[in-house]
From TrEMBL:
Protein's UniProt keywords contain Repeat: yes
Organism listed in the record: Colletotrichum zoysiae
Pfam family membership, one: Ank_2
Taxonomic superkingdom: Eukaryota
InterPro entries according to UniProt: Ankyrin_rpt, Ankyrin_rpt-contain_sf
Annotated Basic and acidic residues bias: 130-140
Taxonomic lineage: Eukaryota, Fungi, Dikarya, Ascomycota, Pezizomycotina
Official protein name in the record: Ankyrin
Length: 140
C-alpha cells in the first residue's frame, strides 16, 4: 500500500479503502499513506485519502506534516488539496508557515495559509494512536 501511495496508484488505494484499509495506515517511520502521496506529488490520491478519513495533520516520527512536505517540494496542487481538506499550516516542526519563509514562498501562499479552514485546529495524536496497521489481507 505504501508503494501505491508513493506511485499515485489511485485505483489500488481506492479498492483497498473500500475494503477497510485504515486511511491513516502508518509505516515504520510514522509516514501515513497521505504523507507519502503528498510528498510524491499525487494530489488526486491525497484527495481520495482525505475523503476516506485520512488525517491531513498526522505528523510523522520527525514531527513533519504533509503540508510542510508539499511546501518543501513546491507541490502547488497538493498544497491546495491539503488546505481544502483541513490541513493546519501552523502544525508540525517546522510548520508549513515556517517552510514558506525558509523557501521564500510567502507571497505565493501567505494569504491562503492565513485563511485556511484548518488553521490552528490540529490536535496532537497520542504516540500509541499514531500507528495504524494494515489488516492481514493487505499484507504481502
Amino acid at each position: 500500500m505504501y508503494n501505491a501511495a508513493r506511485q499515485g496508484n489511485k485505483t489500488v488505494l481506492k479498492e483497498a479503502l473500500l475494503d477497510d484499509l485504515p486511511p491513516n495506515l502508518t509505516n515504520e517511520k510514522g509516514d501515513t499513506l497521505l504523507m507519502l502521496a503528498a510528498y510524491y506529488g499525487h494530489a488526486d490520491v491525497v484527495k481520495l485519502l482525505i475523503e476516506h478519513g485520512a488525517d491531513p495533520n498526522r505528523l510523522n516520527d520527525k514531527r513533519q506534516s504533509p503540508l510542510a512536505g508539499a511546501v518543501f517540494k513546491g507541490l502547488d496542487s497538493v498544497i491546495e488539496v491539503l488546505l481544502e481538506g483541513g490541513a493546519d499550516p501552523e502544525y508540525g516542526t517546522p510548520s508549513a508557515i515556517q517552510c514558506l519563509s525558509m523557501f521564500k514562498q510567502e507571497g505565493k501562499w501567505a494569504e491562503k495559509f492565513e485563511t485556511a479552514p484548518g488553521r490552528g485546529k490540529a490536535k496532537a495524536v497520542p504516540q500509541d494512536a499514531s500507528e495504524e496497521r494494515a489488516p492481514e489481507k493487505f499484507k504481502a
